[in-house]
Amino acid sequence: MNSQRAREIAESSVMAHVTYNDVPIYIQHVNEENETARIYPLDEPENEMTVPLYGLREH
Predict the structure, then answer these.
(1) Please, how many CA atoms are within 13 Å of residue 42, restricted to the half-sphere of its CB?
(2) What are the residue ranges spanned by the domains of the chain?
(3) Among the four residues 1, 25, 48, 54, which has the most C-beta atoms within 10 Å?
(4) What is the pTM of this model?
(5) How far apart are CA 3 and CA 46, in angstroms?
(6) How far apart are CA 46 and CA 1, in angstroms?
(7) CA–CA separation, 54 vs 44, rounded Å?
(8) Residue 15 predicted with pLDDT over 90
(9) What is the arithmetic mean of pLDDT over 16-30?
(10) Which of 11, 55, 58 shows the shortest CA–CA distance to 30?
(11) Beta bridge pairs of residue 23
(12) So what's the pLDDT on residue 50?
């Protein structure tokens, strides 16, 4: 996923269907400089992680 689209999803009030390793996730923050995103699985909000943007998929 490109950084602009990831940022749009993160800033939107509408929930987009995005996955990381086939797990539905929520994007908290996008770091465009490092091309990473701070995310967490929808069913595990305490399990935050930083992942590369190329691993995110919008469905």
Answers:
(1) 11
(2) 3-58
(3) 25
(4) 0.91
(5) 24
(6) 24
(7) 21
(8) no
(9) 97
(10) 11
(11) 20
(12) 98
How many CB atoms neighbour CB 53 within 10 A? Answer: 19
- In tens, the pLDDT along 27-55 reads 999 999 999 999 999 999 999 999 999 99
Query: How does DSSP assign the chain, residue by residue?
Result: --HHHHHHHHH-SSPP-EEETTEEEEEEEEETTTTEEEEEETT-TT--EEEEGGGEEE-
Q: What token pair was written down for 49? A: 């992680």
- Given this model, what pLDDT does residue 39 score? 98
Model pLDDT, residue 34:
96
Amino acid at 14: V
